[in-house]
Inverse folding.
């Protein structure tokens, strides 16, 4: 019975393509020469409305989630179960006074949040959010995404420097150093996916994962190199978006608020928006590269619309981000950089080698065994090498005399 | 013969404005941000010329790495303290004359000789696949040499900029 | 100036002249390096313009040259800025007028 509700059933096909059909219907009212531009404009409007809406939902999701992890309730006054909290937050940040320090560099101080939000929004243009639902299908889509990510770092520096505040500058320097270190890891772990797919175009990467052997999907996370790559990508993504446990640049107990200390009101809301949008963007890329994008987890679930799977996977990643924030303690800056350059980067390079091995060993069970063995051995060896200087033993107490 | 589109004029103006701002502004960090604008304008010009890979590589490398390097170097050398004698050197007039002379020669060369080049009007379709094939096919030697160069440059830059260990006196 | 190639070449020439002017006119060592980067970028623009409007764009020569040039320029910027930082540590200044220990 479920097989007859398969993906070829016209009702489910229409449901899957409902946004594309809606756009085509709206654009059909215009003369032919304006249709393409209007289609793109509608796509842009959709992205600009949907993702900030998701951001509002995520802020309350995060505060409730963190609250439950920390054994308290979280916001519960505004609306049922506190779900209308974002509206209160929005009104608050829009009506707060916009304070600009007297000696701050006014032009750069104003431009920094704008540059951040614009470059982060550009990253959404290449994410395939459903079957046929990518805004711009670029041949070098992945490269465009990383180029936009690289441009984000400069806005962080602009914010920190223009405030003429030592804490802001320190926070900005730490944030930029962290972001450029983990950017290398992010790029290299995606290169493994590109090697196997043979294309930088994100819709093609999703199409390559949208196949099923029996019931199970061909997502890259279910291969040894894919799992290693996904873990490295997840670590790098957490560091790129300055989330816990890598949030020293904006740690409240350390640096007041890091590079956005001197921002208040709407500009702070823009920074907040930019940070969460970067989280969505990077989770979207992670699901596209490793978790199969919009493809369903089992072949008999292919009738569920593709956009539901994409957004479901993105929200699952956000849930994992929130979980990590509530659970793990913060890493110190030097521990963080050590970790990046001495463990994660060599492991990612080894992952590239293992991916090449996978590709050239041909089909069969042999490549699973060999690749998994190499990765596990490397993980154990590198971990032991890094832990040589740690002394594990009974806890020793030193008391003040 | 195709003519220049208005977008080209806009992008050219943006790039040149960024370049001029870089050499004329007093505060070093402002100069670094202006040069980033120039890099962005150039990347857009590359995209206008249908060189997508080069355009995105320009954004990724120049804005994402070189601009940040410049900014870090400015901060580590305390560039915010402006020199008392002004930001322009004593022989600035001579430098201006030389630059103007170079532009005059280049401009004359361009305008006098461009008729001799056959103008290509079809848009070349270059996929990343083609670039990849070229890199490991025809251009594999330059690729390996650039890899060696980048390794040497990385190690060299780290050693040059490292804090020296205190020698026991 | 009706042909598009001439337009791009003139923009590249002007950007090169601006970079050269910046390298010659400013005191700070970092600005000289920035001027050099502008000159390299202008040369890249020249390369891509000739690739686009030249006779054999499918040979990809211009694009490859530009990509290698971007890589080499980044490496050179890294080494140059490392040198400026090292000099600053020794002489406590980054102004080229003051770094004249080898003179006289």
């Amino acid at each position: 019975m479920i097989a007859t509700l398969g993906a070829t059933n016209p009702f489910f096909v229409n449901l899957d393509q409902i946004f594309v059909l809606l756009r085509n219907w709206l654009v059909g009212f215009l003369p032919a020469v304006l249709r393409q531009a209007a289609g793109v404009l509608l796509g842009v409007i959709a992205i600009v409305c949907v993702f900030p809406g998701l951001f509002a939902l995520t802020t309350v999701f995060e505060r409730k989630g963190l609250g439950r992890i920390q054994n308290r309730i979280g916001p519960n006054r505004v609306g049922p179960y506190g779900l209308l909290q974002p509206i209160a937050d929005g009104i608050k940040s829009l009506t707060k006074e916009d304070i600009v320090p007297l000696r701050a560099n006014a032009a750069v101080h104003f431009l920094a949040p704008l540059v951040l939000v614009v470059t982060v929004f550009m990253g959404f243009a290449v994410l395939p959010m459903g079957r046929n639902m990518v805004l711009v299908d670029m041949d070098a889509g992945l490269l465009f995404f990383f180029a936009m990510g690289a441009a984000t770092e400069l806005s962080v520096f602009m914010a920190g420097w223009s405030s003429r505040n030592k804490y802001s500058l320190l926070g900005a320097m730490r944030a930029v150093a962290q972001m450029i270190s983990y950017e290398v890891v992010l790029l290299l772990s995606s290169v493994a996916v590109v090697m196997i797919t043979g294309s930088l175009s994100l819709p093609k990467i999703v199409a390559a994962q949208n196949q099923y052997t029996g019931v199970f999907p061909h997502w890259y996370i279910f291969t040894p190199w894919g799992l290693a790559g996904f873990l490295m990508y997840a670590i790098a993504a957490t560091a790129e978006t300055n989330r816990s446990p890598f949030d020293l640049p904006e740690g409240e107990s350390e640096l007041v608020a890091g590079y956005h200390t001197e921002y208040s009101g709407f500009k702070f809301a823009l920074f907040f928006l930019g940070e969460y949008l970067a989280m969505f963007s990077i989770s979207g890329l992670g699901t596209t590269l490793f978790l199969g994008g919009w493809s369903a987890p089992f072949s008999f679930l292919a009738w569920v619309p593709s956009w539901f799977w994409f957004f479901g996977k993105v929200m699952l990643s956000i849930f994992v981000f929130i979980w990590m924030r509530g659970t793990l303690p913060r890493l110190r800056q030097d521990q963080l950089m050590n970790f990046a350059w001495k463990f994660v980067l060599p492991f990612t390079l080894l992952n590239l080698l293992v991916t090449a091995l996978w590709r050239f060993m041909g089909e069969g069970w042999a490549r699973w065994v060999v690749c998994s063995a190499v990765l596990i051995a490397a993980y154990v060896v590198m971990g032991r090498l890094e832990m040589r200087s740690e002394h594990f033993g009974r806890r020793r107490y030193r008391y003040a005399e | 013969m195709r003519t220049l589109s208005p977008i080209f004029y806009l992008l050219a103006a943006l790039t040149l404005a960024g370049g001029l701002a870089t050499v004329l502004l007093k505060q070093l960090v402002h100069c670094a941000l202006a040069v980033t604008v120039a890099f962005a304008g150039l990347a857009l010009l590359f995209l206008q010329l249908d060189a997508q890979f080069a355009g995105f590589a320009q954004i990724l490398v120049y804005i994402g790495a070189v601009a940040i390097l410049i900014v870090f170097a400015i901060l580590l050398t305390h560039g915010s303290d402006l020199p008392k004698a002004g930001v322009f050197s004593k022989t600035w007039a001579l430098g201006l004359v030389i630059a103007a002379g170079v532009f005059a020669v280049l401009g004359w060369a361009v305008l006098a000789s461009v008729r001799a080049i056959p103008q290509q009007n079809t848009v070349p379709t270059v996929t990343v696949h083609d670039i990849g094939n070229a890199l490991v096919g025809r251009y594999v030697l330059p690729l390996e040499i650039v890899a060696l160069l980048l390794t040497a440059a990385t190690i060299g830059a780290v050693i040059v900029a490292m804090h020296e260990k205190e020698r026991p006196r | 100036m009706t042909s598009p190639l001439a337009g791009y070449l003139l923009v590249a020439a002007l950007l090169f002249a601006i970079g050269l002017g910046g390298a010659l006119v400013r005191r700070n060592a970092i600005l000289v390096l920035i001027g050099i980067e502008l000159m390299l970028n202008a040369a890249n623009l020249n390369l891509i313009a000739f690739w686009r409007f030249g006779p054999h764009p499918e040979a990809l020569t211009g694009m490859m040259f530009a990509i290698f040039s971007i890589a080499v320029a980044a490496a050179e910027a890294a080494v140059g800025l490392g040198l400026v930082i090292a000099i600053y540590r020794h002489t406590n200044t980054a102004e080229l007028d003051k770094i004249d220990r080898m003179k006289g």
Q: What stands out?
A: Residues 1-82 of chain B form a domain with the Four Helix Bundle (Hemerythrin (Met), subunit A) fold (CATH 1.20.120.1200). Chain B has two domains: 1-82, 126-169. Chain B touches chain A through 21 residues (CB under 8 Å).
